[in-house]
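pls design
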């Protein structure tokens, strides 16, 4: 999601990091079997002590985080949370999803209300340099786009001169759109809203000529409105690598979240799936797959978790391709830059060794 323009919570982030570092270590009984009493990560120890990962999400973003008809949170971001729970606790179901607005998401992470933020949140310099936060893993490469009604006859963002544009308040989508119109000598009128569902409803009601948001979200939104004749304009006016964000001050937790993301991609690269992971673990003679699945080396121990951590992730959540097919393919969202690097995309895993 677009970047907030306010940098008001820097001190909160620093304070949260200090509190996190000073948090008490749980007893050995509270850790995963076979691990030491402390993982050397205050956040991981706290997650283990409560047997629950608190994960901040949007909760209203189709394909990323949205409850299904049974109330189960579904989407790429939701499954990223589940993957971290599987790595940290051995059980992908041990997640509490905390829906957060764009305005509240960073405060919630800084204050420790959530352990992890996976909310269409972009990786930016100011978030890392000023808010006390770090991007641990990019789970989606995105960009800001515009959606219009098909009967408007607009085929390019440069045809929006004089348009009213729906925007989420408190995000730098406002700044990106303003910069784009200014750079192209165009005029527009912003119409601001507090939530994404409210913004979408206003756009459908005709309160604005166009809606600017992440292209992924607009694609998912269009798929849920097949009879509306919506058109996503071809321009992408920003580059938005989005993913899993943590607060600074706990490097071991950062490492675990980062390498959990790498597991999802490495598994797809190696052809390891939720369906064949158990058999691969028993029979593979490929050293890289053996390391990935925990039958060779001590990769889990290095991260403060069980050596079966990556096997738990893959067997319970799947690889990145499976997560994509489950959540985004049904909405017609093309993988594009999110293909594996071997297929011309940007997704690849660093060496798991």
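designed seq:
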């Amino acid at each position: 999601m677009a970047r907030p323009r306010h940098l008001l919570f820097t001190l909160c982030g620093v304070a949260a990091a200090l509190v996190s570092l000073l948090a008490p270590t749980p007893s050995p009984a509270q850790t995963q079997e076979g691990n030491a009493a402390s993982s050397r990560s205050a956040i991981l120890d706290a997650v283990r002590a409560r047997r629950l990962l608190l994960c901040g999400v949007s909760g209203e973003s189709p394909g990323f985080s949205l409850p299904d008809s049974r109330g189960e949170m579904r989407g790429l971001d939701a499954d990223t949370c589940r993957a971290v729970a599987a790595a940290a606790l051995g059980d992908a179901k041990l997640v509490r999803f905390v829906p957060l607005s764009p305005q509240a998401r960073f405060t919630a992470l800084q204050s420790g209300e959530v352990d992890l933020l996976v909310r269409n949140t972009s990786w930016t310099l100011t978030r890392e340099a000023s808010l006390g936060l770090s991007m641990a893993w990019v789970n989606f490469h995105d960009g800001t786009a515009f959606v219009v009604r098909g009967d408007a006859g607009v085929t390019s963002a440069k045809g929006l001169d004089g348009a009213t544009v729906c925007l989420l308040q408190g995000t730098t989508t406002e700044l990106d759109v303003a910069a784009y119109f200014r750079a192209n000598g165009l005029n527009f009128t912003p119409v601001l809203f507090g939530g994404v569902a409210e913004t979408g409803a206003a756009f459908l009601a005709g309160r604005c000529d166009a809606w600017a948001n992440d292209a992924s979200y607009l694609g998912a939104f269009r798929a849920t409105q097949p009879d509306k004749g919506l058109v996503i304009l071809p321009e992408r006016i920003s580059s938005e690598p989005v993913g899993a964000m943590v607060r600074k001050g706990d490097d071991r937790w950062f490492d675990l979240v980062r390498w959990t993301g790498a597991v999802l991609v490495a598994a797809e690269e190696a052809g390891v799936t939720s369906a064949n992971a158990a058999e691969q673990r028993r029979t593979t003679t490929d050293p890289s797959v053996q390391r990935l699945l925990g039958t060779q080396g001590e990769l889990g121990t290095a991260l403060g978790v069980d050596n079966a951590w990556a096997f738990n992730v893959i067997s319970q959540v799947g690889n990145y391709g499976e997560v994509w097919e489950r959540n985004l393919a049904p909405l017609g969202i093309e993988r594009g830059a999110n293909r594996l690097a071997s297929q011309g995309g940007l997704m690849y895993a660093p060496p798991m060794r």
